[in-house]
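User: Predict the structure for this protein chain, please.
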Amino acid sequence: MKAIILFGHGARDNRWREPFDRLAELWRQQHASTPVALAFLEMMSPTLEEAVSLLSAQGATQITVVPVFFGQGGHLRNDFPALLNACRKTYPQIVLSATLAVGEEQAVLQAIVDFGARAL
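Assistant: Here is the predicted structure, written as structure tokens:
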């Protein structure tokens, strides 16, 4: 079974995660047959490993991690690969892959331009 993890940075203020919760809910509404979990790099839970564990318990055998970051900074170039590799070692039965940061996607950038244009 395929599943997806929406991976964010995390913050001390719990209100920061509200858009992530809405994003996960949108996923559930539009892709109900594919489980989704949130995961955070720091300061919030679940961690990436906890999210993989949760989806594994639900029967996931292929998990795609989508970094909900604007760009490929140090966290995605250094910290994230180490966390992903640790999960691969802990869960060798699961095929774990990752996309680029969502901010690298042209459609996401265009959506931001469109949002700005509507604000004028």
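The first strand starts at residue 2 and ends at 8.
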